[in-house]
Amino acid sequence: MTAINLIEEAGTLNSRLAALDLAGRLSLVAGLGGHAVFTTSLGIEDQVITAEIGNHRLPIEVATLQTGRLFPETLALIDETESQYDIRITRYEPEQADIDAYAEKYGLNGFYESVEARHACCGVRKLKPLARALSGATIWVTGLRRGQSANRADTPFAEYDPERNLIKVNPLADWDIDVIRAYVADNSVPVNPLHQRGYPSIGCEPCTRAIKPGEPERAGRWWWENDEKRECGLHVHEETAAQ
């Protein structure tokens, strides 16, 4: 399908998704045909989507990027989630050769030294595994929400991803954190215990800290950088993320 066709399809899908609840949105995506992949970081919003996929037995692949630097709590939650919903979460890991090459050039923890080194680490541990996770996919489902950061305030329900030439669906785009928490409580959804310790957004352990009262949800990610648009490149093109 051409880029023009996908742009038009994404626009139509965006309008259709806006009128549905979460179950309806995911059911619609699952019924479109092709191969849909949901990539989860095991954060609280992603757990809501996984719960819906598992409870309704939707034909959407659930995948995660096992970067090699995740918190132990996150790793334990992968196993717990699989057990609770009787699903398989496919792990995509970085290549050891890429990790070795990064360490040779920047040092294992060189991401603290420069934005360039940090983006290079995300490239090795996240972007390259993501490319494998989305290989052959026609729809990419994410847990992006407008309330997560100013950089995500205009997140649509569906959009064309030109870099990967597929449609990206964000079924929780209009959900705020209070609605997320209520869903989790009402449905006994397993969540990362770090959320209760001041970590609303959880990534790799060396790159995530608890936030301070009043800080945005993603303030604890790459906190040593001054740029308020800090991203890893998964959802923002690398050139934009580095600006």
UniProtKB/TrEMBL annotation:
<comment type="function">
    <text>Catalyzes the formation of sulfite from adenosine 5'-phosphosulfate (APS) using thioredoxin as an electron donor.</text>
</comment>
<feature type="binding site">
    <location>
        <position position="204"/>
    </location>
    <ligand>
        <name>[4Fe-4S] cluster</name>
    </ligand>
</feature>
<comment type="similarity">
    <text>Belongs to the PAPS reductase family. CysH subfamily.</text>
</comment>
<feature type="active site" description="Nucleophile; cysteine thiosulfonate intermediate">
    <location>
        <position position="232"/>
    </location>
</feature>
<dbReference type="InterPro" id="IPR002500">
    <property type="entry name" value="PAPS_reduct_dom"/>
</dbReference>
<dbReference type="GO" id="GO:0043866">
    <property type="term" value="F:adenylyl-sulfate reductase (thioredoxin) activity"/>
</dbReference>
<dbReference type="GO" id="GO:0004604">
    <property type="term" value="F:phosphoadenylyl-sulfate reductase (thioredoxin) activity"/>
</dbReference>
<dbReference type="InterPro" id="IPR011798">
    <property type="entry name" value="APS_reductase"/>
</dbReference>
<protein>
    <recommendedName>
        <fullName>Adenosine 5'-phosphosulfate reductase</fullName>
        <ecNumber>1.8.4.10</ecNumber>
    </recommendedName>
</protein>
<keyword id="KW-0963">Cytoplasm</keyword>
<feature type="domain" description="Phosphoadenosine phosphosulphate reductase">
    <location>
        <begin position="36"/>
        <end position="210"/>
    </location>
</feature>
<dbReference type="GO" id="GO:0046872">
    <property type="term" value="F:metal ion binding"/>
</dbReference>
<keyword id="KW-0408">Iron</keyword>
<feature type="binding site">
    <location>
        <position position="207"/>
    </location>
    <ligand>
        <name>[4Fe-4S] cluster</name>
    </ligand>
</feature>
<dbReference type="GO" id="GO:0070814">
    <property type="term" value="P:hydrogen sulfide biosynthetic process"/>
</dbReference>
<dbReference type="InterPro" id="IPR014729">
    <property type="entry name" value="Rossmann-like_a/b/a_fold"/>
</dbReference>
<dbReference type="Pfam" id="PF01507">
    <property type="entry name" value="PAPS_reduct"/>
</dbReference>
<comment type="pathway">
    <text>Sulfur metabolism; hydrogen sulfide biosynthesis; sulfite from sulfate.</text>
</comment>
<keyword id="KW-0411">Iron-sulfur</keyword>
<keyword id="KW-0479">Metal-binding</keyword>
<keyword id="KW-0560">Oxidoreductase</keyword>
<feature type="binding site">
    <location>
        <position position="121"/>
    </location>
    <ligand>
        <name>[4Fe-4S] cluster</name>
    </ligand>
</feature>
<dbReference type="GO" id="GO:0051539">
    <property type="term" value="F:4 iron, 4 sulfur cluster binding"/>
</dbReference>
<dbReference type="GO" id="GO:0005737">
    <property type="term" value="C:cytoplasm"/>
</dbReference>
<feature type="binding site">
    <location>
        <position position="122"/>
    </location>
    <ligand>
        <name>[4Fe-4S] cluster</name>
    </ligand>
</feature>
<dbReference type="GO" id="GO:0019379">
    <property type="term" value="P:sulfate assimilation, phosphoadenylyl sulfate reduction by phosphoadenylyl-sulfate reductase (thioredoxin)"/>
</dbReference>
<dbReference type="InterPro" id="IPR004511">
    <property type="entry name" value="PAPS/APS_Rdtase"/>
</dbReference>
<dbReference type="GO" id="GO:0019344">
    <property type="term" value="P:cysteine biosynthetic process"/>
</dbReference>
